TrEMBL record:
<keyword id="KW-0963">Cytoplasm</keyword>
<comment type="similarity">
    <text>Belongs to the CetZ family.</text>
</comment>
<feature type="region of interest" description="Disordered">
    <location>
        <begin position="362"/>
        <end position="390"/>
    </location>
</feature>
<dbReference type="GO" id="GO:0008360">
    <property type="term" value="P:regulation of cell shape"/>
</dbReference>
<dbReference type="Pfam" id="PF00091">
    <property type="entry name" value="Tubulin"/>
</dbReference>
<dbReference type="InterPro" id="IPR036525">
    <property type="entry name" value="Tubulin/FtsZ_GTPase_sf"/>
</dbReference>
<keyword id="KW-0547">Nucleotide-binding</keyword>
<dbReference type="InterPro" id="IPR017975">
    <property type="entry name" value="Tubulin_CS"/>
</dbReference>
<dbReference type="GO" id="GO:0005874">
    <property type="term" value="C:microtubule"/>
</dbReference>
<feature type="binding site">
    <location>
        <position position="171"/>
    </location>
    <ligand>
        <name>GTP</name>
    </ligand>
</feature>
<feature type="domain" description="Tubulin/FtsZ GTPase">
    <location>
        <begin position="2"/>
        <end position="204"/>
    </location>
</feature>
<dbReference type="GO" id="GO:0007017">
    <property type="term" value="P:microtubule-based process"/>
</dbReference>
<comment type="function">
    <text>Involved in cell shape control.</text>
</comment>
<keyword id="KW-0342">GTP-binding</keyword>
<feature type="compositionally biased region" description="Acidic residues">
    <location>
        <begin position="375"/>
        <end position="390"/>
    </location>
</feature>
<feature type="binding site">
    <location>
        <position position="189"/>
    </location>
    <ligand>
        <name>GTP</name>
    </ligand>
</feature>
<feature type="compositionally biased region" description="Basic and acidic residues">
    <location>
        <begin position="362"/>
        <end position="374"/>
    </location>
</feature>
């Protein structure tokens, strides 16, 4: 499919940039347009691939913002986005909507600009355009503290309500021991881009061959349009094509070749491996309402029988017949890769934990505010007492 990507806030811009990089590296054509929106001027200079004229600074004239960000305050992030919707609209005027199958709004939910702004813009896009609006929301890691959890829990509800589906990515599940924060983010942004691009980039009309079982945009839209949250599974296998073609030539010369069953087992095995590996956000696979499998790789590797078996297997795992499976032939790919979309998952322990932490954080923040008010009241009383003798 083809999408217009809007990266909101710092994380949103960097992830949008990583998607551009991955699609360029793999010769895909997922993004018809990309726009980075931020309230902090400095963060808009971070992306490498997003063109300069597709970076929009909002809140410049707001007395509390002035191009310096919203300081992890989602209410201010939402206010600034609402105030500057006209500017965002003007920037989106150049999007070739006739050529776009969906909008994808990306944001980290633990801060202010993305957390507050992404739901506002998603809701607006849904009112303005007929195309579906998908969200990609990053959950903060536990060690970012209660304020980030509170921001994320609030945004999660608003962002889910404002989109046709919200794909989740959990920073906690993807943090690697010993990595610096930025090094870790670079790594996770690439992994996230790999999954999103393999999944949504299927069925984009580009130079790749179209197969009989090709996935198309309407299949992806049908699976995603559940108004709930989604997660993505992924696995890949190196093919080492040079060695392989040499070996295959020898095999063929000796009357052997990789059989249909070998190809089928490879595809089916890779789908099982993906679903049992780390999801973008951990969730109980059985709780998915709908799912979709995309197998991408050189045409000779894309076994129809393998896809069919994988689909049947996933039906039993999700206890649902709403499973679609298709392929995405890539002539020059040196990998066989599988992305599985699990849509409207309802058993997501990380979301429950986030909501609990948010309640604790809210209570603590309120207690701190009450204590501060009491202190101020006491100070005023003391000062009045001292003035009394007059
Ligand atoms: N996966 C990933 N997560 C990130 C990245 N940068 C930040 N985050 C996460 O996103 C959350 C929001 O951070 P930012 O995107 O910097 O915040 P913002 O939306 O720009 O909002 P303000 O800085 O408060 O104006 C953080 O709490 C992190 O959990 C990134 O590059 N990758």
């Amino acid at each position: 499919m083809h999408v217009a990507v809007i990266g909101f806030g710092n994380a949103g811009g960097k992830i949008a940039d990583a998607i551009l990089e991955f699609e360029a590296d793999t010769g895909r054509s997922l993004c018809k347009d990309v726009l980075a929106v931020n309230s902090a001027e400095i963060d808009l200079s971070k992306p490498d691939r997003i063109p300069e004229d597709r970076r929009l600074l909002i809140g410049q004239t707001h007395e509390r913002v002035k191009g310096r960000g919203v300081g992890a305050d989602p209410e201010l992030g939402a206010e600034v986005a609402r105030r500057d919707l006209g500017e965002i609209d003007r920037a989106l005027d150049t999007v070739p909507v006739y050529d776009v199958d969906a909008f994808l709004v990306v944001a980290g939910l633990g801060g202010g600009t993305g957390s507050g702004g992404a739901p506002v813009v998603s809701r607006h896009l849904r009112e303005m355009y007929a195309e579906p609006v998908y969200g990609l929301g990053v959950l903060p890691s536990t060690d970012e503290g209660g304020r980030a959890s509170l921001n994320a829990a609030r945004s999660l509800q608003a962002f889910t309500d404002a989109t046709d589906s919200l794909v989740l990515f959990d920073n906690d599940a993807w943090r690697q021991a010993g990595e610096t924060l930025q090094g870790g983010y670079d790594h996770t942004n690439t992994e996230l881009a790999r999954r999103i691009t393999t999944l949504l980039g299927a069925g984009a009309m580009d130079d790749s061959k179209v197969s009989e079982t090709a996935m198309d945009a309407s299949d992806i839209n049908r699976t995603l349009s559940t108004d709930g949250v989604s997660t993505i599974a992924y696995a890949s296998a190196e093919l080492d094509r040079e060695t392989k073609s040499g070996l295959l030539d020898q095999f063929r010369a000796n009357g052997h070749a990789e059989s249909d069953t070998d190809y089928a087992q490879k595809v089916h095995g890779l789908v099982r491996r993906a679903v049992n590996a780390r999801l973008t956000c951990p969730a109980d696979v059985a709780s998915a309402e709908r799912s979709l499998v995309v197998v991408s790789g050189p045409p000779e590797e894309l076994s129809r029988k393998g896809l069919q078996h994988a689909r049947q297997w996933l039906e039993t795992q999700t206890d649902s017949v709403e499973v679609l499976a298709g392929d995405d032939p890539r002539e020059n790919a040196d990998q066989l890769s599988v992305a599985v979309l699990l849509s409207n998952v309802t058993d997501v322990p990380r979301v429950d934990a986030l909501q609990e932490r948010a309640v604790d954080a809210q209570e603590r923040i309120e207690a701190e505010e009450t204590a501060r008010d009491d202190e101020v009241a006491e100070l005023i009383t003391d000062e009045n007492d001292q003035l009394d003798p007059l």
